[in-house]
Fold each of these.
Amino acid sequence: MKKLYLIILLMLSVSLKNFAQKDTSDLITTGQQVPSFSFEIEKGKTVSINDYKGKLVLINLFATWCPPCNEELPLAQKDIWDKHKDNPHFAFFVFGREQDWAKVLPFKEKKGFTFPILPDEGRKIYSLFAKSFIPRNYLVDENGKIIYQSMGFSTNEFQKLVQIIDQHLKNN
């Protein structure tokens, strides 16, 4: 009887481990082409992500109320945007999931961010990338291929993103 309990416990732990390792919230992964979408770069002016082919593009998906997002964005300002904003081969877009201009503009001003913070009402953009969880980062190369992605915020993961951007732009 003890053997049977041990076998059941072992099978259960293997099943739980496999379940925990499967993240089904991603709809797109590294190595795939970035989905095609249009967005307002400023009120009344719409562009396509395809307009940015030929550039390294960082897409950040966040919400103003999200604590990890609010921890990550000041670092993005300092460690990414301030360093690369004048590089013609780089673009950075931060999309506020389910938020409109009336929400993102005051947030941007209050926090003193200078990078583009844009609305994503109705999760139109977010839903192309994921089902749940923020913040998320997608780094897209000059050919439109996703070369890095992250979910959530950790200092180590963020530093990895910074290093990839720095190295990529140094080589181009």
Note: The chain has five helices and seven strands.
Amino acid sequence: MKKRFHQIELFIKYPHDVQEEWFKRLISAGSQTAWGKEYGYSEISNVEQFKSKVPVNDYDSLKPYIERLRNGEQYVLWNTEVKWFAKSSGTTSDKSKFIPVSNEALEECHFKGGKDMLSIYCSLYPETKLFSGKGLAMGGSHKISEINNEEFLVGDLSAIIIENLPYWAEFIRVPKKKLALHDKWEEKIEMMAKAAIPHKVTNISGVPSWTLLLLKHVLEITGKEDISQVWPELEVFFHGGVNFEPYQEQFKTLIRSGNMKYLETYNASEGFFGIQDSRDSKEMLLMLDYGIYYEFMPMEELGKDHPKTLRLDEVDLNTNYALIISTNGGLWRYMIGDTIQFTSLSPYKIKITGRTKNFINAVGEELIVDNAEKAITQAGKKHQAIVSEFTAAPVYFSKDDNAAHEWLIEFEKKPADLETYINDLDAALQSLNSDYEAKRYNDMVLRRPLVKSVPTGTFYNWMKQRGKLGGQNKVPRLSNNRKHVESILSMLDERQ
């Protein structure tokens, strides 16, 4: 761990040199692929040439190449064999995305990220007893397909990682691999809870929403009121996938130990990008030596045919950027759909602010997920209310009314007065977003939010109905259309 810390200090000290070095290595590897030959990688010697030759891509533009890989062709996007595909939540045109995962991406990015997460945690808390017990990991599932007598693994990234962990990892994690990779989600939650209860669990990792479900099951089975009564040595939850802030109060009600710690990570099927490296701040260190070259697209460039992107040395603080990556898994100038802001430029630290498609901009209010989650947290604290899940969408102008935002909120603990809660939610949104505040002035463009408190289990049942149970699937927080909200309201009407 100390050796690794020296390497982390090097990329903190020389961030641009490290990124430049990785850029050259990626271009060299890519020049040996079908993609590299098509885009003239052998003639690329600098980043500006790369930008001029290679377009910014999303999943749909890379999909034909990924399909070739899935049909057994090799050396299409990366210069070594690709046998694993991380199944991720889909696009507008597909139910699922299949992200190629090379051996290099596993070793140099995902595994390295996991080890660094532990190294950083141990550095922050040298008194840790983390290794005296086991880690409970909320993994996904996978299946093996055979094409042209070759085996290919398709599944959640967490499942691919568990499948490829070294044998000794089985001794320090729970449950056993077979159960961790079980594909029937509701059965798996029950079985995982029962399997984990007898063990000395010191750490948990996973997506907050699904981890909460598991912890509630543990309490139901044991009849305890506090997870600390089940696992007294539990000391940390490593979480990622979604913003933790809206879930924090729920975790505090389930885990009442004053020693419990929470460490934020930024990992996705496409790569491992950031790790919280401070005790008292959730911002994450941007990890620069994982085989990923970063570009940052200003939000005003989104949707343009030839969008401008910035290098790491060109970014500003507190500005929203769409994240663009080129990776050792063969993703080239790939827009993963997340938006981030830099909170520090020395070292480079980031926070996730939302999704490029997860926002509401019906009347120019530019409401992003970061605004929504902070407002939910602020209103919750004021009313001692705890929100399990929520989603929001626009209500468009009608003959009789101005536009509004409609919120469907599932409360773990309801506010005593919903009307006052709505006022405070609205006030928080106005304080966080000046465009929203301007549109709310005297109700001239936007009316007060319409909030519907939905029954417990609504979002779980809706995700189940859509075949979206499991760690890689997240409740969409904001949408610029009414598809999700109408689908949930329709489901609730059918159940009445």
Note: The chain has 17 helices and 20 strands.
Amino acid sequence: MRHSLLCGAAIILLLGCSDTVSFNTVVGKPEIDGRTGLIKRNLDLGQVKRGFTVYQANCTGCHGLNGEATPDWRKPNPDGKYPPPPLDSSAHAWHHSTEVLKKTILKGTPPEIGSMPAWEGKLTEQEVDDVVVWIKSLWSDEIYDLWYRNFEGK
């Protein structure tokens, strides 16, 4: 719990610095970091902030304060459904394209797999886009690079 609160505080501090600082999602042709060889991320900080706000208002009850989920997220519940996974680099959110992430938020998970409700009609398209960008901001540089090369860079 303390780790979660510290992560949330760190994100808020980072996001509060400036709306002009490059942070995450590539706009246009990606730029490669000459030092690391990884794709540089240039997310709109305003969008990340909005996504964090939408997430905090709607998603923390299941995914945790900072997308950390529960410790046993890999183990099915007694009903056979899996608990909500972490949204950072430690689980599988980054194994999905932006479109699949958005569809999952809008339509929910298939009922035989999980219990995520559909948010279509409850969140605007902009709010869903903002949450997806916030989720991407949680990923490590290495995971973001893998994700981008597999889904966006094709």
Note: The CA atoms of residues 64 and 70 lie 7 Å apart.
Amino acid sequence: MTEKITLNVKGMHCASCENSIKKAVREIGAKASVDVKAGKVSAEFDPAKVGMKELKAAIQKAGYKVV
């Protein structure tokens, strides 16, 4: 079963930012869609494999701030 969540993320400005976040989230086993203009990242993940802590850490490791 998958879970969906939308996070507010600061520091995104362009398509490169979008790609960086998608890659970081994909590397931990989740999927993400990114709305740079709105500052939102929607993630879909299996809570048995990926937790909120890992999701936030992956985005922050890519250089963005989850607020």
Note: The radius of gyration is 11 Å.
